[in-house]
Amino acid sequence: MLMRTDPFRELDRLAQQLMGPGTWSKPSAMPMDAYREGDEYVVAFDLPGVASDAIDIDVERNMLTVKAERRPVAKSDDVQVELSERPLGVFSRQIVLADTLDTERIQAHYDAGVLTLRIPIAERAKPRKISVGVGSGHKEISG
Question: Is pLDDT of 16 > 60?
């Protein structure tokens, strides 16, 4: 078997052992990417090894909360663990969403350990043309 030494991985492992796994009252953070794609915002969370039924997504007003739990793999009595580096426990992330996003139409998709949320931009937040009237000073909003 090939063994590779990485001193930073050892420090990460020691820090994880000292802090312990995430719990529901003190979850660990999960990495994410967020970007705009056309008329929606996309947020992608890395959750490798998490079962889809262990993911909980809530929206309350403009606060989006994602919680997930990576549970230990069931092992039989005759298994001897040689190395265990993958973190277990609860992971969580909260994001404050802008008022310009439509929280009623959020779509969630989980594939290959990545949870992807697509949040459409609200119609009222999209750009619209305003025509300027001449003479009487009336302005008309179209859109």
Answer: no
Query: Whole-prediction pTM value?
Result: 0.68
| Res. 60: pLDDT tops 80 | yes
Q: How far is 120 from 36, CA to CA, in rounded Å? A: 10
The strands making up 63-70's β-sheet, listed across from edge to edge, are: 28-29, 89-96, 63-70, 55-60
DSSP 103: G
CA 88/CA 51 separation, integer angstroms: 12
Closest CA to 100 of 118, 125, 117, 120: 125
* Calpha distance 38→121 (Å, rounded): 9
